[in-house]
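*Target chain*
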Amino acid sequence: MRGRTVSVSEYGALAGTEIGVSRWFALDQARISAFADVTEDRQFIHVDPVAAASTPFGGTIAHGFLTLSLFSAMADDVLPTVEGTVMGVNYGFNSIRFLNPVPVDRRVRGRFLLKDIAERSGDRLLSTLGVTVEIENEDRPAAVAEWLTLLVTAGG
């Protein structure tokens, strides 16, 4: 869908369907450590490979919030542009669950389902997206979420 522009009605017609699957994103130690520095979450399970090796994880793992922070980039891969939209705004989450840790040097991708779309104030569209973050070569996802995004149209 990337690069595709759809009308509001075409977007609405996609409700209840899978919109698409993003490209893979590598979660190597450099990315995990950079995220730790930015967020000041330097727990050893994320940044100390030697100490993390003795945990049940067997090595460092990505932060759950790092996985979550990739939602925008993943969505950019798959969500169409809705005609007249001047900006999209993160509106929050109805739910988030981290189901499986992401080991260092693994790749993740997002699978997007447009669950619902609702008009707000006539110039805003509230999208409810089901997002599943898959880990390459794993059956169990890293995370599942119901993500709310607000699309502001030219009238807003």
Summary: The beta strands are 5-6, 17-21, 25-27, 81-82, 85-98, 106-120, 124-135, 143-153. The domain at 5-25+63-153 is CATH 3.10.129.10 (Thiol Ester Dehydrase; Chain A).
